[in-house]
Write a structure and sequence with these properties.
Blueprint: H1 9-34, H2 39-51, H3 54-79, H4 87-104, H5 110-139, H6 143-164, H7 188-194, H8 207-224, H9 226-236, H10 238-243, H11 248-275, H12 286-296, H13 301-324, H14 330-344, H15 348-366
């Protein structure tokens, strides 16, 4: 008789994904070996490029910040039984909200303009996600289809606005003018320098603190609030939710609003924290990576932070790896990421059963 698939929360959130990642890297090592490269050297370059220097660590944490926001966005909807794959479009509209806010309120001081820019990004992202949420709740439209459509709509809308409305008259580039200086979220090396501590310059900015605060807020919401309980009930059993007096339609819309607002955090990090202007394709596919992050992290904030760090290491370390070993191109790094997603997603049940057997065997041996 096979062991039951019940696992402690820590094992399900951390141990199972860790086993999946280790196995994925072993398989990726075989792929690297097959093209005639040394997988040990490749791993060393990957780690050194992402964690081996202050600059590399800064870039890794910058990417991690993006993935935390998009992973949390997917996770909140996932707890409500919704598969929101519209993070790209929601982040794009979040960027529009941030840009319109800081450019039109440039007379305000930074301690007001920065929070308002963040709220603008969250509001526009939430509004863009609310429409598919409403269509799902009230019209029965499938959330996957509508969020895919809204990704494309956001892409077309931002191109039109940047080319015809928001672009500077003297510029040929499809981008806005630079955001006012007081709206720039400080870089982390600038913050440390203010305290007399010198660290290498990188794109990393205080949005990382905002992302960690958002993760803590999502944990409080999902696991320590009445609304979070309602979200989880609807996600587990909508029929039971109705009998409990919970409206699945209302929860669907609320969950998508929260999901879209979190996706707007990507725009805060990229635009207010680094680019300092609205430009095309600033989301760079990070909204789709958020899906893998949420699945690998079991839709739990702690797991999402760890999965985000892993993908941050892959993005930054992969760039260094491609430079040091040209035979391993950026496409190969994408393949490695795909293997990790495959192992953490499609083969999740296999590794869960493996961990269950090991834990039960260990427990029986101790008894």
């Amino acid at each position: 008789m096979s062991a039951p698939l019940d696992l402690p929360k820590w094992a399900d959130t951390v141990l199972v994904p860790a086993v999946s990642v280790v196995c994925a890297f072993l398989v990726a090592g075989l792929v690297v070996l097959a093209i005639g490269e040394d997988p040990v050297s490749a791993t060393r370059y990957l780690i050194q490029g992402s964690l081996g220097s202050g600059e590399g660590l800064g870039f890794t944490l910058f990417y991690t910040t993006d993935f935390i926001f998009t992973g949390l966005a997917v996770a909140v909807a996932y707890h409500a039984g919704l598969f929101n794959i519209g993070g790209e479009g929601q982040a794009t509209l979040g960027g529009l909200g941030a840009a319109l806010t800081v450019l039109n309120l440039s007379f305000l001081p930074g301690f007001l303009l920065i929070p308002l820019g963040i709220l603008g990004a969250a509001a526009f992202g939430a509004a863009w996600a609310a429409i598919p949420g409403y269509l799902q709740a009230k019209r029965g439209s499938h959330i996957v289809i509508t969020t895919i459509m809204f990704n494309w709509l956001a892409s077309v809308l931002i191109v039109y606005l940047l080319v015809n409305v928001l672009r500077e008259a003297q510029s040929m580039n499809p981008e806005t003018r630079e955001f006012p200086a007081q709206s720039h979220i400080p870089f982390m090396h600038e913050v440390f320098a203010a305290f007399g501590i010198e660290i290498p310059s990188s794109q990393l900015n205080l949005s990382l603190i905002l992302a960690l605060a958002a993760a803590f807020g999502v944990w409080l919401l999902i696991y320590r609030s009445r609304l979070g309980y309602a979200i989880r009930v609807v996600g587990s059993n909508p029929t039971a939710a109705v009998y409990a007096g919970i409206s699945p339609a209302r929860i669907t819309i609320i969950a998508m609003l929260l999901s879209g607002a979190l996706a707007g955090g990507l725009a805060v990090n990229e635009l207010m924290g680094y680019q300092h202007r609205l430009l095309l394709e600033f989301t760079a596919g990070y909204g789709f990576v958020g899906i893998a992050v949420a699945l690998m992290g079991r839709a739990h904030p702690v797991g999402i932070i760890l999965a985000s760090l892993l993908f941050g290491i892959l993005y930054q370390g992969g760039a260094e790896l491609a430079f040091e070993q040209p035979a391993i191109t950026r496409d190969m790094v994408v393949v490695i990421s795909g293997i990790i997603i495959l192992f953490a997603g499609a083969l999740d049940g296999l590794f869960r059963r493996l961990v269950v057997r090991v834990l039960h065997s260990t427990k029986a041996a101790r008894a």
